[in-house]
Amino acid sequence: MTDGKKHNPQILAVLTGDIVGSTKLEADRRLFLYKTFPVLSALLKEKYPEEISYRISNFRGDGWQIIVNHPKKAFEISLFIRTFIRFTFRTEKLDTRIAIGIGPIQFIPDDNVSAGDGPAYTISGRLLESFTSNCMGIGFTAARSELSAKSVESMVTLLDHIITSWGPGQCQAVFLALQSLTQAEIAGRWTPRPIKQSSVSKSLKTAGWEQVKLGISAFEDLVNSAINYNGE
User: What is the CATH number of the domain that holds 63?
Assistant: First the structure.
């Protein structure tokens, strides 16, 4: 594993995901989806340099994995990924399922995180396979606080329900808000063309962004409590 990162080397988060709806894509859009993963990797490493040490690993065409150095940031990064996919492929109405596995990792190959091994990989993969109607979930290999673990599992289920109800505009607004941009800056960076600040405000309000931010903060506290990890 990469030296010099400020994290507990034994407890990391593995995010395992797959793209919902990708089988209906035409060949050119499937190629675009494949090329989207390196772009998303670069955005993640720019926004979360302390959390992301490895590129997203893309496998089986629509499957992917990434490692998060600080487990407490796993949900925020999952939200970053999910909102990006949903507004980037708004015409095709794609989504991504994301299973967060928190626990030890034995090793991570520098060039392919999906070839790594450890309990966190196992629980993340099994959790994704267990999904039925939900798109997000979290599992711990051995939580030191069962109460905190159960609480954060329930919170992720609730937040997943909220996020699933968002439209492409709400996803784009939240994605840009996660980058600490003001509403005016979000309006100026809006794609495919700039919009009014008032429209950004409406999208964030209807998404319940202020409430979701509280959920992100609570997730961090609960995960730290669950694994008894007090580092920053």
Answer: 3.30.70.1230
